[in-house]
């Protein structure tokens, strides 16, 4: 056991003056204070170091520490100067670990319009420019230049995970090879690394050569192509890089296999030849973590604070989640635009009630806690403890979504255990209210099973959610209104939103509440045309719903929507799908979100007339078109303005996938509620 272990018992002391010694060391001075004469693992991260279970470097560092390894973290190293940040700690005994941070760096840096963002939520003070584009590649190349092949370099995190095979890069507008071709790492560890990082460290500590670790679960490695086997039930051979570069259809066909195997309980090994000599091998994921395993990860002695080196500076991403609690990992929603199942898997790994309550008590002890837990949720707030009724069916399942096109009849949708956790947390002294901020799947909570007990519990869940766990505004995500677009998104029909809205209003009236339902919508998603946005505008107009801040679809690696965007082909049907690509096409769709704003009236009128849709024009403006004082230049200037991301909403959290969010404002049908 390392000397660092002596501090484990003290790290639950939450305060503003916590000693650096209860954190993982970040400098030579801190290491010297610990009396260390070597370091086992050095983790390089594109994020600031926040010792909280929502930040990957902290989790992996604490997991390694709990197994007796000495770990140091180098957060946001300066890659521009003499590279002293890469030199200051020297060589680790076992390996370097490299991650871009909690978000793909390009989503972090750029808007949907490919404009540079002016801030970075994962940096002290929200300062931009503290990490390069593609830091996984940049950091790895620097480490190789400085240390050669003497020390293994392992890459991981969401940027590496989603780029483990050939992928479309929206920011370069081009197809790219596996990131292992560009980042000279020995191994790529994808998904959640809690289990893999220990197996890796133990193997290297036992004397194994990293180049021999070809079969480590949940890793990708480049091997000589001669090792690529013939295809069988345990080995899937994708179209090669040369083939996908020449044929978008081949790339689409590849994606179907990648998604299916990422969502299997026991996936096959995936191979893709990258050149005449080499192939990428992607080993299957670990089985979903057990409750004991995920508890062990969350119960580690996090200080729940940013490292003292950032004293006086605010880290926006931390401020949004510091009083929140993550209850589970995984998501079986299968939304076409989301990467979370590719990263965490579709099978739910849930913490025990005891572990969640323990963390809630740690939150209560924080000096700035005012009695309100900001989020008691997960990737999707109401999937906690849910699984298949017959697990043998799940063992064979290839469906990417358990909810689309219909809720799987084998899915147990009972919300009882979730309610039990809510009640336990709310009963704690010091908790005034626990909010559900991470978004709920109303198609799940409102699903009629025919089982009287389950249906009764779920009805109670919906009412308790609305009455007790809404901070004035409840986020839901219908995403669109038109059936064919929703089908491509793998989202439920819009009629379910109407049903949930009616329930929401009834419960509010019953309890004398005046809360808002905040629906999220996406423009320019594959399959969506301008006329579909006009239909959306009509339906939101009828609900007197004014959407101030909305979201354009941003293609991110390894999602179904991105593959359709790039290839123009649906990977599962082989059919061609229209997608808005040009700035003009995207703007023509986006303006319909703002049907109520005079600035957009002239453009909307002209567009609908050119489409010969006077019927939609009459429905959108039944009293006639208000006078517009806007011109096209003002409109386009507004659209090109860099947008804020709203760090706290569910779309922007890293474990929610990589949609590029602008944040949303919702309306209760009567009055506007601007942030």
Word description of this protein:
By secondary structure, this protein is of the alpha/beta class. Among the domains are: 3-218, 3-Layer(aba) Sandwich (Rossmann fold), CATH 3.40.50; 222-284, no CATH class; 524-648 and 655-675, no CATH class. The protein is built from 26 helices and 22 strands. Strands 3-1-4-5-8-9-12-11-10 form a nine-stranded mixed beta sheet, with helices on both faces. Helix 10 (248-262) runs antiparallel to helix 22, helix 14 packs parallel to helix 16 and helix 21 (530-542) packs parallel to helix 23 (583-590). It is globular, with a radius of gyration of 25 Å. The relative contact order is 0.10. Mean pLDDT is 90; it is low at 1-16 and 629-675.
Per DSSP, the total helix count is: 26
Our Rg estimate from Cα atoms comes to 25 Å
What's the CATH C level of the domain at 3-218?
Answer: Alpha Beta
Given as residue ranges, the uncertain stretches (5+ residues, pLDDT < 50) are 1-16, 629-675
What's the architecture of the domain at 3-218 in CATH terms? 3-Layer(aba) Sandwich
Helix content: 25-40%
The termini sit apart by 50 Å
Average the pLDDT over all residues and give the rounded result: 90
Shape from CA axes? Answer: globular
């Amino acid at each position: 056991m390392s000397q660092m272990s002596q501090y484990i018992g003290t790290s639950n002391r939450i305060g503003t003056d916590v000693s650096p010694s209860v954190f993982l060391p970040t400098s030579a001075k801190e290491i010297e204070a610990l009396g260390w004469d070597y370091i086992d693992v050095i983790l390089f991260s594109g994020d600031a170091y926040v010792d909280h279970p929502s930040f990957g470097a902290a989790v992996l560092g604490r997991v390694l520490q709990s197994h007796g390894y000495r770990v140091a973290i180098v957060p946001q190293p300066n890659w521009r100067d003499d590279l002293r940040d890469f030199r200051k700690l020297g060589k680790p005994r076992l390996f370097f670990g490299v991650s871009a941070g909690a978000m793909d760096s390009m989503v972090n840096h750029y808007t949907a319009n490919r404009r540079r963002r002016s801030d970075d939520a994962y940096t002290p003070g929200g300062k931009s420019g503290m990490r390069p584009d593609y830091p996984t590649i940049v950091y790895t190349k620097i480490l190789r230049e400085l240390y050669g092949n003497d020390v293994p370099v392992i890459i991981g995190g969401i940027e590496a995970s989603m780029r483990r095979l050939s992928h479309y890069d929206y920011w370069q507008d081009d197809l790219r090879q596996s990131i292992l071709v560009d980042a000279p790492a020995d191994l790529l560890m994808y998904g959640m690394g809690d289990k893999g990082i220990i197996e890796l460290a133990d193997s290297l500590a036992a004397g194994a050569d990293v180049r021999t670790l070809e079969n480590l679960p949940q890793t990708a490695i480049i091997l000589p192509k001669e090792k690529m086997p013939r295809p069988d039930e345990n080995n899937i051979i994708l179209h090669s890089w040369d083939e996908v570069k020449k044929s978008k259809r081949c790339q689409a066909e590849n994606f179907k296999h990648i998604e299916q195997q990422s969502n299997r309980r026991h996936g096959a090994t995936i191979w893709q030849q990258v050149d005449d000599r080499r192939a990428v091998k992607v080993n299957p994921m670990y089985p979903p973590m057990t409750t004991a395993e995920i508890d062990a990860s969350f119960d580690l002695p996090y200080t729940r604070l940013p490292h003292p080196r950032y004293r006086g500076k605010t880290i926006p991403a931390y401020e949004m989640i510091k009083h929140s609690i993550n209850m589970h990992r995984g998501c079986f929603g299968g939304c076409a635009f989301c990467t979370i199942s590719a990263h965490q898997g579709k099978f739910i790994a849930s913490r025990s009630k005891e572990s969640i309550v323990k963390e809630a008590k740690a939150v209560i002890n924080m000096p700035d806690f005012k009695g309100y837990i900001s989020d008691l949720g997960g990737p999707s707030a109401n999937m906690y403890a849910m699984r298949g009724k017959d697990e043998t069916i799940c063992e064979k399942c290839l469906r990417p979504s358990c909810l689309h096109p219909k809720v799987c009849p084998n899915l147990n949708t009972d919300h009882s255990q979730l309610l039990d956790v809510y009640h336990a947390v709310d009963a704690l002294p010091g908790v005034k209210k626990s909010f559900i901020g991470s978004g709920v799947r109303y198609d799940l909570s409102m699903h009629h099973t025919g089982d009287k007990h389950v249906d009764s519990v779920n009805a109670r869940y919906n009412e308790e959610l609305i009455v007790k766990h809404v901070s004035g505004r409840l986020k839901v995500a219908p995403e669109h209104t038109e059936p064919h677009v929703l089908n491509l998104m793998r989202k439920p029909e819009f009629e379910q939103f109407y049903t949930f809205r009616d329930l929401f209003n009834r419960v509010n009236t019953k309890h004398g509440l005046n809360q808002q339902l905040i629906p999220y919508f996406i423009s320019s998603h594959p399959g969506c045309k301008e006329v579909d946005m006009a239909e959306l505008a009509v339906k939101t107009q009828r609900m007197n719903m004014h959407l101030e801040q909305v979201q354009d679809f941003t293609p991110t690696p390894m999602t179904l929507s991105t593959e359709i965007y790039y290839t123009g082909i649906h990977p599962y049907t082989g059919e061609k799908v229209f997608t808005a690509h040009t700035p003009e096409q995207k703007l023509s769709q986006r303006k319909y979100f703002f049907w109520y704003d005079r600035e957009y009236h002239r453009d909307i009128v002209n567009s609908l007339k050119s489409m010969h849709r006077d019927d939609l024009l009459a429905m959108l403006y039944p009293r006639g078109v208000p006078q517009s004082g806007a011109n096209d230049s003002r409109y386009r200037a507004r659209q090109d303005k860099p947008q804020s991301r709203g760090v706290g909403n569910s779309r922007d959290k890293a474990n929610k996938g990589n949609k590029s969010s602008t944040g949303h404002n919702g309306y209760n049908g009567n009055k506007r509620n601007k942030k």
